[in-house]
Amino acid sequence: MTAPLPPREPSDPLAPMRAALAPQHARSRAAVGLAAMAARGRFALQVCAECAAVQYPPRDLCHRCLAADLPWRDIQDGGTVLAATTTRISGDPYFRQHTPWRSGLVQLDAGPTCVAHLHRDVGTGARARMRLHLDKSGQGVMLALPAKDTPNMDADPQLREFTADPRGRRILVTDGRSAFGRAIAQSMLDAGAGGVFTGIAEQWKPFTPPPGAVIDLDLTDTGSVHRMSAEFGGRIDIVIDTTLHIRPGGLLERGTTIDAREEMERVYFGPLRLAQCLGPALRARAGDGTHAACAWVSLISIAGLVPQDGYRLNAAAHAAAVSLTHTLRAELRPLKILAALVGPLDDAWHQHVPPPKVTPASLAAAVLRGLKSGLEDITVGDIAQDVMDRWTDHPAITLRHTA
Amino acid sequence: MTRRISYEGVVAVLPTTIPYTRYSIQTAQWWIGSALRELAKSAGLQPREIDGLCVSSFTLGADTAVGLTQHLGLSPRWLDHIPMGGACGIVALRRAARAVQAGDADIVACLAGDTNGPDSFRSLVSGFSRFAADATYPYGAAGPNGSFALLTDAYMRSYGATREDFGRICVAQRANALRNPQALMKRPLTLEDYMAARMISDPVALFDCVMPCAGADAFLVMREEAARAMGLRGVRILSTIERHNGFPDDPVQLRGGWAMDVPDLYAMAGLTPGTIDVVETYDDYPVIVMMQFEDLGFCGKGEGPDFVRSHDLTIGGDFPHNTGGGQLSVGQAGAAGGYLGLVEAMRQLTNTAGGTQVAGARTALVSGFGMINYDRGLCSSAAILAAA
Lengths: 403, 388
Ligand SMILES: [Zn+2]
What we know:
The complex is a heterodimer of chains A (403) and B (388).
Chain A: H1 29-39, E1 44-46, E2 72-74, E3 78-87, H2 93-98, E4 101-108, E5 113-118, E6 127-134, E7 140-146, H3 157-162, E8 170-173, H4 179-190, E9 195-200, E10 213-216, H5 222-232, E11 238-241, H6 251-254, H7 258-284, E12 295-301, H8 315-331, E13 336-342, H9 360-373, E14 377-380, H10 382-393, H11 395-401
Parallel strand pairs in A: 5-7, 8-9, 8-11, 9-10, 11-12, 12-13, 13-14
Antiparallel strand pairs in A: 1-2, 3-4, 3-6, 4-5, 6-7
Helix pairs in contact in A: 4-9, 5-7, 7-8, 10-11
Chain B: E1 10-21, H1 28-43, E2 52-56, H2 65-71, E3 78-81, H3 88-102, E4 107-114, H4 120-126, H5 130-135, H6 143-159, H7 163-177, H8 191-196, E5 199-201, E6 204-205, E7 214-223, H9 224-229, E8 234-244, H10 258-269, E9 278-280, H11 286-295, H12 304-310, H13 326-330, H14 337-349, E10 363-372, E11 377-387
Parallel strand pairs in B: 2-3, 2-4, 9-10
Antiparallel strand pairs in B: 1-7, 1-8, 4-7, 5-6, 8-11, 10-11
Helix pairs in contact in B: 7-11, 7-12, 11-12
Zinc ion (ZN) binds next to loops of chain A.
């Protein structure tokens, strides 16, 4: 049985901070497929296109028939724990911080045996639900969960290394002016966050008071970002950039580059500025106990992947924002970088767009689910999912089909 | 299967050990080269007269056996590099024997050695194999301790083995090691000490683990008449087996590849398990020793625990086993661990084992096991040797 999540440890200003470490990152190219699946919350392995043999560890050729066509397919997530161990002595600095650490051998119902991290409520001989998760290095790893939910199971210290559960953590919501920012701030409080700081730029302009503590933050103003980081940087565990600036307009309609510059300023330079300013403090605290800093969330229009009709010029800024998430992943580990690609919003800027559209509540629920599941790549709304499915199937056709 | 040709007319001579040290500032090239110098000196040969070379090592860096030929000034006409960890000694022996038999080489030096620094073991383990880096090291980075903990747990649950059963193996080997001045472990070990030791990766505790160290082991393979002419006492090779990735469909390793080949091993030697005088198994962890007792026919599958309860595994016992103390008490000098049992068996059969000598030893079985590539050891090997 898992004990409830303990309260945040009181910080000792004289004690050196626990270093932000990560397990070994090096993997073969095939094994990086595990990370791509884990980022999306899929339990998928390579399955031979010729003989249907499920492969694990990831391979370049089928272990049964030597075929090279090994597409990643969702497979049954059940398994049986054949053996378990608790590692008490490890040569790796990250695991030394986290011993005792449980792992086991799990025979998947789909065939292969895998070494897996074991939730503490799963023992030898037990049935398990298998998940692929991203570890602190950003690589995909196997985790065995108990077959049925157990009390406080989210508080398992190993599971918490793979998720970014807001419970007990302090959240920065960068922009509380929109209904989307307010809904996210509220959902974090409802999920047991230890506090929410909600940014409002240019507070002399009227605004609906958002949930959480209102702070002065304007991502387009370097001074504002510096001031906020200096004051709150040591107290933020999760950043959610709710800018989500989506505006209609194409090349000929707009006629000038003014709006495009403005979009780039808000959608790309804003979070870039924040990452440069706040990133070091956030990353430094990424190993700091059970409530360590753990995640950065970017809300980006699906147009960043495939430009959407009526919003074409805006897409470039969102494409830049997508690109920034890759940079953040490369430079801000062990933080998780959750990129939420969002479909048309149910807001004043999408009045002529027919449903389905993303409501504040559905966006907030998707972000919370993504954090609690430790995902890094999610889509929000049916349109975004449809675009992602087409993109995954064939990027070049998808780009031309919508052109 | 095709009937196999015997190793008649070929012998292994001059079991040679460069004394192990816990850590060394020397390189693997130094350790292996030192073993070669020792071999040549003992045989009364110039190094260049050695025309076959076979090397195993984990710490040569970018070098293979090829680089060593230039480093050590040899011009062999037969060269092999065997990256098979604990199986490498027997594999080296059987390959060298065939080369000599076929006339491809006259004198083959078989060498295994590794150095060990404070961070060598971690750095070896973290990049041990592609599958290990992809699918075991990220799960606690416990290295072989973690992998063997899982195999031990599975074995204990399947066959009712207890920690005491494994302890009996370790305690007997320590008793043997106290008679071997080369063993790094010098303190007696009781079953109480074994049981009280701290857990490393449950159920593997401190005395289940070998201590990584630096060292080298070596021997020469040549024609029997050549050895006689040089005044060297050799051992004959009655039979050998090797297998890789045996039983790939077993969900967890409860048996090694030996079980696939053991009928061939005894048939070729014309012996039965009961006629073996000395047994040297590969003992990186005691669970693997127990598996070898079963898979090499000394008892049935799952009877390993009973076997160790009912036999005395010490030098003077009814089943002399790992007479030099094994890696568990001597230390594990990397790939040389795959030679340790073989050179000890050669000493037993040439009556040169000193304090660890088993009286009247005429036949020995040596087995090897190596390379936890992912979840199990992939290489298994065994040989039956006889006094010449
Ligand atoms: Zn196949």
